[in-house]
Amino acid sequence: MRPRSEADVKADVQRVRSARKEATAQFEETMTKGWVRRLHRNRVHRQAQNDRAAADVELYDLQAELKGLRDRAREERERAREVNRAEARRVASAETAERRRLAALKRLKKGPFALVLTGVASRSGQQRSESEMAAAISDATGIAVPQARRTLQRAIHVEPQPLLDEIAETTAIRIKMNLETSFGARLRIVRTGASDGLARKPIPPRVRSEVWNRDGGQCVDCGSRERLEYDHIVPISKGGANTARNLEIRCESCNRRKGASI
After folding, report:
1. How many domains, in total, are found in the chain?
2. Which of 56, 93, 98, 157 is the most exposed place for a label (fewest CB within 10 A)?
C-alpha cells in the first residue's frame, strides 16, 4: 500500500467538509420545519448532530495529517538545499584550490635548479594532517594535490622525492622557505645534473611498483617495513641503471651498512 500523499489527504478533507455541510443543512432543516412530527424531528436532529460531530473529529485528524505531510516535505526541501549548499561549497573550494595551483605554476621561473623533498620535521603540538601538507605543497608548487600527497608519502616513508625540476634559484629558495615555515618540510635545492645523487633521474613509477611488489614491500635484508628506500645494487656512480634488476628495497639502516661496505 503506497503512502498517502498530500493530494490524497486534501481530497479526504474536501469529502469530510461536504459531509459536514450536508449534516449541518439537515440539522437546520429539522429546526425550521414545524410540520415534521416531533419524534421524527428529534431523531433526525440527533443523527445530524452526530454526523456533524463525527465530521469535525475526522476533519481534525485529516488536518493534523496534512500538517505532518507538509512539515516532512519542508524538512526534505531543507535537507536538499543543505546538500546543494555543501556541494556548492565543495565545488567552490576545488575551484579556489585549482586557481591557486595555476597561479603557483605561473610564478615558476625556469632555471638550472631542482627542489627535492626529503621528509617532514617533527613539531610537537603543531603537526598538520597529510591532506593539509599536500594542499600546501600544491599551493606552493602548482603540483596537483593527489600527486603532492603521493610524493609526500614516498618522501616520508621511502626516499627523497623530486618536487620541481629546472627552476630558478630564487624560485627554489622562495618555495623552500614557504614549505619549511608552513609545515616543517625538509627540502634541498640542487643543481640539475649534479652528481650528489639527489638531482639524478628519478626511478620510473613502473619500475618502483615492480620492485615493491617483488620484494613484498619490506627490506630484503632484515624484513623491516619502516623507513624503506630503493637501493641500487650497482650504484649510479658506477654505471648502474634504474632497472628492476638493479634495484632492491632496503631499510635505511641496512642500506647505510651496505653503502659503507662498497
Report:
1. 3
2. 93
Residue by residue, DSSP assigns 160-175 as -EEEEEEE-HHHHHHH
161 is a domain residue: yes
Read out DSSP for the chain? -PPPPHHHHHHHHHHHHHHHHHHHHHHHHHHH-TTS-HHHHHHHHHHHHHHHHHHHHHHHHHHHHHHHHHHHHHHHHHHHHHHHHHHHHHHHHHHHHHHHHHHHHHH--EEEEEEEEEEE---TTTPPPHHHHHHHHHHHH---HHHHHHHHHHHHHT--EEEEEEE-HHHHHHHHHHHHHHH-EEEEEEETT-TTSSSSPPPPHHHHHHHHHHHTTS-TTT---SSEEEEESS-GGGT--SSGGGEEEEEHHHHHHHHHH-
The answer as to whether 198 is a domain residue is no
Give the predicted TM-score (pTM) of the model.
0.44
Per-residue pLDDT, 43: 72
pLDDT in tens, 177-206: 888 888 888 898 888 754 344 445 778 888
Residue 95: inside a domain: no
Of 52, 83, 114, which closes a domain?
Answer: 83
CATH code where residue 233 lies: 1.10.30.50
Inside any domain, residue 151: yes
Q: Cβ(102)–Cβ(148) under 8 Å?
A: no
